[in-house]
Amino acid sequence: MKLRADQSGNRGLPMPLWLQGALESAQSAILSALLVLLFTVWVWASGGLGSTGADFMARLAGQAWLLIHGVPLTVHLYSGSSSAQDLGGPLTLLPWGLALIPFLLSWRAGKRLARASYSDQLWQAALGALLIYGGFGFATAFVCGTEDVKINLVTAALLPLVPVLAGLTCGARRESRSWSRLIGVEAVDWISRTSQHSRWAGSYMWTVVRAAFLAIMAALSLSALLLVVSLAVHWAGIVSVYQGLGADVSGAAVLTLAQAGYLPHLVVYTLSWLSGAGFSLGTGSAAGAFGTAVGPVPAIPVLAAVPAGPAMFGPVGVLVPVIGGVLAGWWFLREGENHFDEWLSIRIRTRWFTATVSTVVLAAAIGAVGGVFALLLAWVSRGSLGLGRLSDIGPDPLRLGVFVAVELAAGTVLGHASAPWLERRQLSELPEPAGATRSSFSASKSAD
């Protein structure tokens, strides 16, 4: 990108990378703000916000823009009595599904900035982009904060940078097609300078992390599938809640969009329900595979899909994270990076002992890493709606992490132990070479 290009053919001076990053970031911020503003204007014009003025509508749009970027708000709701009791609280249950809007816009910006930068200069563009986006968040919080909705200015300037930085990084990585080219470090040369034992240990641990990621993603995918099944089974109840609210088109659209923003939370809650850890739907309410005791909840249609009472087949849900562990153990064997088992076999000749110890250590490692992943997912999906007893929603992070770690470890033992048999079965089912009889094929293998 150039600062100026006229008809004389002079292409002008190259635009500084920090300025180009600032312009790309400003475009992303303005586009995301326009999307939120257009939707808010539609609801306001259709009477969905009552007899409020344009200033209230504009502040509400700014507050919604901050929410989709992960900025918590503090809501104050005062009762009509003389005591003026505050019924509100912190709004920390954030719609992470809607954070895809700034993430995808920043993905586009990251690709364009990587195209315009050398590998060791991308930080300049990223720094300019983050400074401008943080300034947008600070200005929005400063303008849109009211007595009823308090916004921390520092938080508003920093938290929007999380989805933006993730989008910039993923977009730049997609364009450069290599992490080493992205950061200007030759990873192969750096690894070659380390010792052989360090390389083995590093490849073993990196494979463990990838296997744990595969396990948790498989468990989440199965949880999402079962969530869809539950929504389909309880569809009549969901429709009844919509009809009971009596909302018009704009109100129903707002409610549906808000529920779509919380779909990632619902998937994590489903995993927590299946694992047996359970989750909370407000103070004093708990839902899990081994029993559900839910008190009064707000009229949110998607909550009609929560199973009520004891679930007959609920304990079977424990198999979902176990299946994720089975896939992780099988995948780990196919990667061929079990260097701990190789090291142990060199020192101890008793194979049944080394195989057992290495499998148990592998299961413990994959379970621990997967449990950390589950703990982080529970932490970001837990929060408060700032309304009375709805100040405690979501799974307990430590409880979910422990349950998932144990179940993934059990599945890893099964998957890694059965993987050799599965691999031999696949090899035996391979087709023979064309034009060769089975006896000649076997003879050729024996000769080799």
TrEMBL record:
Keywords: Membrane, Transmembrane, Transmembrane helix. The chain crosses the membrane at residues 25-45, 91-110, 122-143, 149-172, 208-233, 253-274, 286-306, 312-333, 353-380. Pfam families: DUF6350. Signal peptide: none annotated. This is DUF6350 family protein. It comes from Arthrobacter horti.
